[in-house]
Design brief:
Elements (H helix, E strand, L loop, with lengths): L34 H4 L8 H13 L18 H16 L1 H10 L10 H16 L5 H15 L4 H13 L36 E2 L8 E3 L5 E3 L9 H9 L3 H10 L2 H10 L6 E4 L11 E3 L5 E4 L6 H8 L4 E2 L2 H8 L8 E4 L6 H9 L4 E4 L4 H10 L6 E3 L14 E5 L20 H18 L9 E6 L8 H11 L3 E7 L16 E6 L1
Parallel strand pairs: 8-9, 8-11, 9-10, 11-12
Antiparallel strand pairs: 1-3, 2-3, 4-6, 4-7, 5-6, 12-14, 13-14
Helix pairs in contact: 2-3, 2-5, 3-5, 4-5, 5-6, 5-7, 6-7, 12-13, 15-16
């Protein structure tokens, strides 16, 4: 007797098999194939893309609180590692833009799709939009293959359909259609090969100009689309175009004019250059350094290939530091402190600056974070005037500090072009938590100030007055400080501007 047919489940497939009507969906009947993602010896795609799509897949459930340094390029050659970092950075930098573009072509809800499928879509779209040297067919095929191997079912078909629909959004110059030939080792794009012609495939505009049918690039130009896909509301459109959360733009609009909100938002598209603090250089600077608009700083024109690391190993009198970062210490160069305490030293950049600025001072450096403290100890192990101490021993220096530098943890809104993960995690609750921490840091540092002559140099890389001027006012009210030398640097450098114009944003005030 013939065995009765098994009933279909709610997804349109048989029990235990992925349903054909909902490819790539996250549902209880899903049994994703993980071998391709976790067997690193046999990736479904080339190793660089495999590493990136794996890392992005891990970030998707964490969004908006993205993890730092989640991309693992161990085992990749130099060329593959460079490609992986470039692709990963553009996905993180333009996350909201990429997600919205995919959503415009997607029928299912974004959050209903498997994280691996979303990763393939983000990475594929990033290559199509922002990595101009990558052939369109390669971006699509590699993303489809990875999704097929990572999730299974018909997920590859979903990814293929969405990415191809995105390519059809591009306005192409008029030309004769050209077929793409593939060798035997490369998967064929399929019957739709003419969607991937050779030669120029897109029309670029000289500027974005707030258009609903264009995507701004970091070099100032914009990609023209066949149809308007961005919202009609100007603020929503700006948020998506530059990949910043809408609530962040609303926060900025509370304390700055709209033209400044727009300028800073566009600044976040720029890929920051490597800027060297050369204020204290003791010998002639090497070739490859171009003077920055800010005095005492230079831009390194070609930091790749180990050139930057080699330069920093050879020279202790110059170091990587943006003009916004150097602002706080530069504001007090006329002081003559005998003991300087860097209580939130982090990676030690400002510690180097303090040692160079005050050659007659003893520098005490520490950080409450154990990893950073270990790095500080290694960096200044043989320094003649910098002593790294455990954070909990700061009480040994009570009333001895002539200058206490407090480079406080903050929202990083002045450095969002550099701190890519930080641009998405801001919230009112997080700001409140940061302000409480900043006040506590000041309260703890009061006991370190030499009575009658010492001062606290408070600095952040935030643009929010709540973390800056309001904290300064709180210190005046509750700890009797006078405020002096208050400085604020707004981020500078827009898409298309020369790198010598670029700076981050920061705030500094001396509390005496």
């Amino acid at each position: 007797m013939r065995e009765p047919r098994k009933p279909f489940n709610r997804t349109g497939g048989r029990p235990g098999r992925p349903g054909r009507s909902t490819p790539g969906f996250r549902n209880d009947d899903r049994r994703p194939r993980r071998d391709a993602r976790y067997d690193r010896h046999r990736p479904a795609t080339d190793p660089a893309r495999d590493a990136v799509m794996h890392a992005i897949s891990q970030q998707i459930p964490r969004y908006p609180d993205l993890q730092l340094d989640s991309l693992d390029t161990n085992g990749l050659g130099d060329r593959d590692a460079a490609f992986a970092h470039a692709l990963y950075d553009v996905v993180i930098r333009r996350w909201i833009t990429l997600r919205q573009l995919v959503r415009s072509q997607l029928k299912p809800e974004w959050n209903d799709i498997h994280p691996d499928a979303r990763s393939a879509l983000l990475c594929g779209t990033a290559q199509l939009l922002f990595m101009h040297s990558v052939p369109a067919h390669a971006a699509v095929n590699e993303s489809v293959n990875w999704a097929d191997a990572a999730v299974g079912g018909r997920t590859g078909a979903l990814v293929n359909a969405i990415l191809r629909s995105i390519t059809r959004l591009f306005v192409e110059p008029e030309r004769e259609p050209v077929s793409v030939e593939t060798d035997g080792d490369e998967p064929s794009p399929g019957a739709d090969d003419k969607a991937f012609p050779t030669g120029p495939t897109r029309v670029l505009l000289p500027a974005w100009e707030d258009r609903r049918d264009a995507i701004p690039f970091e070099d100032g130009v914009a990609l023209l689309l066949k149809e308007p896909i961005w919202p009609e509301d100007p603020m929503e459109r700006l948020a998506i175009a530059v990949s910043l959360p809408l609530p962040l733009l609303h926060t900025w609009a509370k304390h700055m004019p709209m033209r400044e909100v727009r300028r800073i938002a566009m600044h976040c598209l720029v890929e920051p250059p490597v800027i060297i603090n050369t204020t204290h250089a003791q010998s002639e600077l090497p070739d490859g350094l171009t003077p920055h608009d800010a005095p005492g700083h230079h831009v390194m024109t070609n930091p790749s290939g180990g050139a930057l690391s080699a330069l920093l190993r050879e020279r202790r009198d110059i170091w990587v530091q943006d003009p916004a970062s150097s602002l706080a210490v530069e504001s007090v160069v006329d002081l003559k402190p005998k003991m300087v305490i860097d209580a939130c030293a982090g990676l030690g950049t400002k510690t180097r600056q303090l040692a160079a600025t005050f050659p007659d001072a003893t520098i005490i450096a520490t950080d409450i974070d154990r990893v950073r403290h270990r790095g500080l100890s290694e960096t200044f192990a043989n320094h003649e005037r910098v002593t790294v101490v455990p954070y909990d021993t700061l009480t040994d220096f009570a009333s001895q500090g002539d200058l206490i530098l407090l480079d406080a943890p903050c929202s990083n809104t002045g450095v969002l072009a550099r701190r890519l993960e930080a641009r998405y995690r801001g919230s009112a609750q997080r700001t409140d938590e940061l302000v409480s921490l900043q006040r506590q840091i000041i309260a703890d540092a009061v006991r370190l100030v030499r009575r009658g002559s010492g001062g606290l140099l408070y600095s952040t890389c935030s643009l929010d007055p709540t973390e800056n001027e309001d904290v300064s006012a709180w210190a005046r009210k509750w700890h009797g400080f006078d405020t002096d030398r208050e400085h604020r640097r707004s981020p500078a450098g827009l898409p298309g501007d020369p790198p010598t114009r670029y700076t981050d944003g920061s705030f500094a005030v001396l509390l005496t």
